[in-house]
Design brief:
The protein is α/β, with parallel strands linked by helices and 209 residues long. The protein contains 7 helices and 6 strands. A 6-stranded mixed β-sheet has the order 2-1-3-6-4-5.
């Protein structure tokens, strides 16, 4: 698949062949869904907890005698049906994480990238550089490249070269920077456009190709 390579002004410089194994892979919707659910589940902390009747304070003695009062028998004022009592069938801390083999995860990424490429939502950038780390400059660049679309900007790695890019992009709500090695299904499906500099394309090809 051939795509245009553009500069920061949005002007075409040349064309490049996207690796067919990555960007023209068979689209497996079920696999993409499984990878997406796994990622969301793994992000859950699972720290939810409420107290049972054995954990709330009080209730050490029987509130009134068993017989002769005309009222229903009660064993503790901390039973679930009492105000201030413990909770029945309450949520407990648990691990929500799901496992998925690496081959399946990478196949899901190839499917997502193939969908993006088929729908012309991938933009290849010749070079990514700013004269100074200004949010205004980054916003103007994105406006020239993708208009008002939300953008996932993939960079080769986080280092001093890309520090100005991080500084300029962190306050833009429609833009997210992501290391090429950390590409994931949730981010790919959450943004309208994916911008990949040529250097980042090499990193993606190194582990997905």
């Amino acid at each position: 698949m051939k795509v245009d390579v553009v500069n920061s002004e949005g002007k075409k410089l040349k064309t490049v062949d996207l690796p067919a194994r990555i960007f023209e892979a068979p689209v497996n919707t079920s696999l993409m869904h499984q990878a997406y659910i796994r990622q969301i589940a793994n992000a859950r902390l699972g720290t939810h907890k409420t107290k049972t009747r054995s954990e709330v304070s009080g209730g050490g003695r029987k509130p009134w005698r068993h017989k002769g009062t005309g009222r229903a028998r009660q064993g503790s004022i901390r039973a679930p049906h009492w105000v201030g009592g413990g909770k029945a069938h309450t949520p407990r801390p648990r691990d929500y994480s799901q496992k998925m083999p690496r081959k399946m995860r990478r196949a899901a990424l190839r499917s997502a990238l193939s969908v993006k490429a088929k729908e012309n939502q991938i933009l290849v950038l010749d070079d990514l550089a700013l004269s100074e780390p200004k949010t205004r400059e980054m916003a103007q660049m994105m406006e020239k490249l993708v208009g008002g679309s939300s953008v996932l900007l993939v960079i080769p790695e986080k280092n001093e070269t890309y520090d100005p890019i991080y500084q300029a992009a962190k306050n833009l709500p429609f833009l997210k920077l992501l290391n090429a090695n950390y590409m994931n299904i949730r981010d790919l499906l959450s943004f309208d456009k994916v911008i990949i500099p040529l250097a980042a394309l090499d990193v993606i090809e190194s582990y997905l190709g």
